[in-house]
Specification:
By secondary structure, the chain is α/β, with parallel strands linked by helices. It has helices spanning about 1-15, 20-30, 35-40, 65-80, 105-115, 130-140, 175-185, 205-215, 240-250, 280-290, 320-335, 350-355, 370, 400-415, 420-430, 445-460, 525-545; strands spanning about 50-55, 85, 90, 95-100, 120-125, 145-150, 160-165, 200, 230, 255, 295-300, 305-310, 315, 340-345, 360-365, 375-380, 385-390, 435-440, 465, 465-475, 490, 495-500, 505-515. The chain has a six-stranded mixed beta sheet, sandwiched between helices. A six-stranded antiparallel beta sheet has the order 18-23-22-21-20-19. Strands 10-9-11-12-13 form a five-stranded mixed beta sheet. A hairpin with a 5-residue loop joins strand 22 and strand 23. Helix 4 (about 65-80) crosses helix 7 and helix 11 (about 320-335) runs parallel beside helix 12 (about 350-355).
Length: about 550
């Protein structure tokens, strides 16, 4: 076994094109570190609808140039089999973007080389830019596919590889398994042609076109007075967001200087995700100092947008569901037409808002790969801070245009001497208080997640927080409207719970919602207290039932 492991490691080492991972792997082989080698050679990183995501390092179970070259070769082979190597009489174009993480630019260049060697055209964005700029560029340039090298808001040691097809949305089955099969068919990197030139590095024309498209997000002549504090969370959002805000005529955001520029080590945060505890502390400190109307945060690749507001004496994050409802109400007030869509783990309040406005409403599986494909989509969101406010421009979540829209809404409310919290109160009185929370457990050992899901399936709870479960659904079977997925959905009287493993992180996620009727604004404090009590009790009982 040890000899076989060492032989596989040496074979991998022999064709590894990266001096860094070669040195890392050679040291492990010399030390005969069987435990570490086994962890890296126990299989291969699995390519799925989220593409690839994993820890940087040597070997097939890590993100590295060898793994990326194989992924790119598999994608190129898939595109050729789909007849996409030609488009409109010319050679099919693959456009490639990347963030500022360790190795991202190398992975982007490798992808361009592989596409060029496979007979496709490749074009790389000019520098690290927000993921939505890449999603926009695919359709703007008429590409047959796009690749974004990013691990979004994962820890610094990770990187990832997202794949889009020519419609500008992320891949869904069966494309993922078909691409994975082509990746598995790559025997040796020596079989993958990788020219050293022949692809195009784009100029700022694509970025200028993206910024011009943001004009469509805002209403002509709307108020643009809200003052903001902004953090890029050590990512790539700052320059694009500042340019978009300047173009729109908003006051220049006050930057959280310590987090404004790209830094792949994310030194001021434990996790570069605005939802994680402590990540917004520097933004809150800047807001206490400067008293803006709201705080805006992007995650490192700027496809997510978080907002925070002053609530009483201090600042608090708005939940993704709160921003989702606010943006929906704002778009309804502007008279937009089209379908409003959300993932099943997001708040049912969106459906109430859409129904009252006479607009179609759809629920999808988690992920913008599904939301973006809803027919007639006008607005889509999911609770994990993802918002698609201009689907004709970007068929994915976009933290830049979402920031513009929430700041326009804050400006409009400011002109009426009101705030985002006032509008949330109005929505609660009109539709019932929809309070959401999440029980999220990060694990070192993935078997903990599998065990919890097994336990819930074998011994399903009958009550949570004293409320009877009126309907229990195992989503692996699929439903009339949803394809199969690993998840459980419980419907209670006035509450809803969904449990699922995260698709991108080692986490078990439980999404909780309670709906408390409110007759008038005076009843809101009592309704909030009741909702908080119910959510805490559901969380407690669900933890016990799942054994987490």
């Amino acid at each position: 076994m040890h000899d076989d492991l060492l032989a596989r490691a040496q074979a991998w080492l022999a064709e590894d094109p990266d001096a860094d991972t070669r040195a890392e792997l050679a040291a492990l082989i010399d030390a005969k570190d069987v435990t570490e080698l086994a962890a890296r050679f126990s299989g291969t990183l699995q390519f799925g609808t989220a593409g690839l995501r994993g820890e940087l390092g040597a070997g097939p179970m890590r993100m590295n140039r060898s793994v990326v070259i194989r992924a790119a070769a598999g994608l190129a082979a898939y595109l050729r089999k789909q007849g996409q190597s030609q488009r409109d009489g010319g050679t099919g174009l693959v456009v490639i973007g990347y963030d500022a993480r360790h190795k991202s630019e190398d992975f982007a260049r490798d992808t361009a080389a592989v596409m060029t060697g496979a007979g496709l055209r490749a074009a790389v964005l000019p520098r690290p830019l927000p993921t939505p700029v890449l999603a926009f560029a695919i359709r703007h340039l008429g590409a047959v596919a796009g690749v974004e090298v990013t691990a979004s808001h994962n820890p610094p040691r990770d990187n990832g590889y997202k794949v889009y097809l020519g419609d500008g949305s992320q891949i869904v089955p069966p494309a993922d398994t078909e691409i994975a099969a082509e990746i598995a068919a790559v025997r040796s990197l020596n079989d993958v042609p990788r020219p050293t030139a022949g692809w195009e590095t784009l100029d700022d024309g694509v970025l200028e076109a993206y910024l011009a498209r943001t004009d469509a997000v805002l209403a002509p002549g709307s108020p643009r007075t809200a003052r903001t504090v902004y953090t890029a969370m050590h990512g790539v959002g700052k320059d694009t967001l500042l340019a978009a805000f300047a173009r729109a005529g908003f006051p220049e955001p006050v930057l959280v200087a310590e987090q404004a520029d790209p830094d792949p080590d994310f030194p001021t945060v434990a996790f570069p995700n605005p939802e994680e505890p402590g990540a917004m502390d520097l933004a809150f400190a800047k807001a206490r100092e400067t008293e803006p109307d709201l705080i805006i945060a992007n995650d490192p690749d700027a496809d997510r947008c978080a907002a925070a507001v002053k609530d009483g004496a201090d600042w608090r994050m708005l939940r993704g569901d709160e921003v989702g409802a606010l943006l929906a109400a704002h778009l309804v007030s502007r008279g937009v037409q089209g379908t409003f869509a959300e993932s099943i783990v997001s708040s049912s309040l969106l459906g109430r808002i859409a129904e009252k406005a006479g607009l179609p409403h759809e629920e999808t599986l988690t992920g913008f790969k599904w939301i973006a494909r809803v027919e007639g989509l006008r607005y889509g969101y999911e609770e994990a801070l993802g918002y698609c406010v201009d689907p004709d421009g970007v068929r994915d979540k976009d933290g830049i245009t979402a920031a513009l829209l929430i700041t326009e809404l804050a400006s409009q409310l400011k002109a009426e001497s009101r705030t985002l919290l006032d509008l949330l109160d109005d929505l609660a009185v009109e539709h019932g208080l929809h309070a959401t929370d999440q029980l999220s457990v990060r694990v070192e050992d993935l078997s903990v997640i599998a065990d919890a899901m097994h336990r819930l399936r074998e011994q399903p709870p009958t009550h949570l927080a004293g409320l009877a479960i009126t309907k229990a659904e195992d989503l692996t079977q699929g439903t009339e409207k949803l394809p199969p997925t690993d998840g459980l959905r419980y419907t209670l009287d006035g509450a809803r719970v969904i449990v699922r493993p995260s698709g991108t992180e080692p986490k078990l996620k439980c999404y909780l919602e309670v709906v408390v009727p409110v007759a008038a604004h005076a009843g809101l404090p009592a309704a909030r207290a009741k909702a908080a009590q119910l959510l805490a009790a559901i969380k407690r009982d669900l933890s016990a039932a799942a054994g987490i």
